[in-house]
Design goal:
about 400 residues, alpha+beta, 17 strands, four-stranded parallel beta sheet, Dna Ligase, domain 1, single chain
Length: about 400
């Protein structure tokens, strides 16, 4: 039996690299409101760690939709669980300390050496190296630079029309800074702070992007990276995650093949898997996702793959979406998204509107139409996780459909 914990601030904690790291308020709120999210991807018979008894009771009410034998336990009672393993959203020193304070045995968690390796492998400069290795593939494009001084950042921006600067470790949308025009003092100040805190910055031109997607993998005890499926997702103007389309892999592959041929896509997928053997050799075990995009090549104007935007050595929303896809009825497309409202009253009203106008409709135990809220919406909640079923004849996502409410960066 494994113990699951949702800690979406994991990338921020990797950047801080202290067991005493304290996440910002938005990250704390997201952790609190979506504590039940692991219930939708946990293995049968597992336990989900939650902050309150009310969360555990809510899981019981959802038990007919969840894997068999799933249960919830509060942080205060975590020490009483007879767990064989621990599965946080992502590993870092802060979450290990937090779990240890709950009474979880140290033998169930990675030591300092392994955590240091995970942190190093998770850094965006590592993905930049893999990007360079795939530049010889005719289906790939993309430029990326690792910068170490304020002068290098300024020179990089001033030599290009529009660039995006990225912190080596950061949460969704938080560690990005866009420079579309003058290299303003606010941008220079941000770059200086990141350089001082994390040692470098990853920079690339802003591309004409057509699709965001990811390749999902799992590395097991045999050290082999195995492809686990595609993730077709959406982002807001800041690069922050907003949601996933729920489609079969064949449909996602067909959608991507409008830009890059299926043979090219599969060849790049194979080459990415070979790159990931490096992570297996250095001791990483578990889920990981490689974020990619389809964009126009600057030289030819043809659509190509940008194969390594970043590598997430952790559970991720695309993997959650792949589990949720199994909930949909045949012939039904859908989307999974994280909803945010600035006030608790707005979120409560949105839930009431869904109950009234988009209640979930089921067919043989599968979602046919409507919206289903996956997490408990408490009186103090600002976030929820949702699935929406969209009945379309060809199972394709409507091109103009909204992808969910933009989520403030954590």
């Amino acid at each position: 039996m494994d113990l699951y914990l949702f800690n979406p601030d994991s990338d921020l904690a990797l950047g801080n690299n202290s067991e005493y790291y304290r996440p910002p308020a938005n990250a704390c709120r997201l952790t609190h409101d979506l504590a039940l999210l692991p219930a939708w991807y946990a293995e049968p018979g597992s336990t989900v760690l939650v902050p309150r008894e009310a969360d555990a009771r809510h899981l019981d009410r959802l038990s007919h939709l969840l894997p068999q034998g799933l249960q919830a336990v509060t942080y205060l009672h975590a020490a009483h669980c007879q767990a064989d393993g621990v599965q946080p959203w992502g590993w870092n020193k802060a979450v290990r300390r937090r779990l240890a304070d709950m009474g979880i045995r140290p033998t169930l968690m990675p030591d300092d050496a392994r955590l240091d390796t995970y942190r190093r492998l998770s850094a965006r400069p590592v993905a930049a190296e893999w990007l360079r290795k795939l530049q010889d593939d005719p289906a790939c494009t993309g430029e990326c630079a690792v910068l170490h001084t304020p002068a290098q950042c300024q020179a990089y921006a001033e030599a290009r029309r529009a660039v995006v600067f990225k912190a080596p470790w950061s949460g969704s949308g938080k560690g990005l800074r866009w420079c579309k025009g003058d290299y303003l003092p606010s941008i220079a100040g941000w770059c200086a702070r990141v350089l001082q805190a994390q040692g470098c910055i990853v920079a690339s031109p802003v591309y004409d992007k057509a699709e965001d997607f990811a390749l999902e993998f799992h590395i097991g005890s045999d050290c082999v990276p195995r492809f686990a499926g595609y993730s077709l997702f959406t982002t807001n103007e800041r690069g922050g995650y907003t949601g996933n389309w729920l489609l079969p892999d064949d449909d996602i592959e067909a959608r991507l093949a409008r830009y890059v041929g299926p043979d090219s896509l599969r060849r790049v997928r194979h080459r990415v898997a070979l790159c990931l053997e490096h992570y297996a050799r250095h001791g990483y075990r578990g889920w990981l996702g490689v974020d990619m995009m389809v964009c126009r090549d600057a030289a030819s104007s043809a659509y190509k793959l940008y194969p390594f935007v970043e590598v997430n050595l952790r559970m991720n929303m695309g993997l959650v979406a792949s589990r949720l896809r199994q909930m949909l009825a045949p012939g039904v497309a859908g989307r999974f998204f994280i909803d945010y409202c600035p006030t608790t009253a707005q979120l409560a009203d949105r839930c009431r509107q869904d109950d009234l106008y988009q209640p979930p409709q089921w067919l043989d135990g599968h979602l046919l139409t409507g919206r289903l809220t996956l997490t408990r919406v408490a009186p103090d909640s600002h976030y929820r996780a949702c699935v929406e079923a969209i009945l379309t004849a060809d199972r394709k996502p409507p091109e103009t459909a909204a992808a969910g409410t933009p989520v403030p960066p954590t």
